[in-house]
Amino acid sequence: xLSNYKQQAIQELVDMATPHEREAMYQDAHVLASGIMRDxxxxxxxxxxxxxxxxxxxxxARVLTVEAGKGWWFRYQQRIEITQAFLDSGTxxxxxxxxxxx
Length: 102
Prior knowledge:
Elements: H1 4-16, H2 19-39, H3 48-68, H4 72-89, H5 96-101
Helix pairs in contact: 1-3, 2-3, 3-4
């Protein structure tokens, strides 16, 4: 799990970003997490790859939370949903627009 410091730094970046920048952050994080899952199909990764994956999930969860105007509970649920989707299939299917509006 990411440190509180890293989580707060991500939140500050998301808060300062425009909607267009948030979408780009989300898409970049999605590509990064997908690449890690593709490169480690056994889901047995640690160290830097694990931290990078967790950072990508955190970015996606925080962007979705801000866009939906929700709070910590929604963000917590998004972390779980995103992580589980990647672990189950190696990808996270919902695109940015559908995830936010749903």
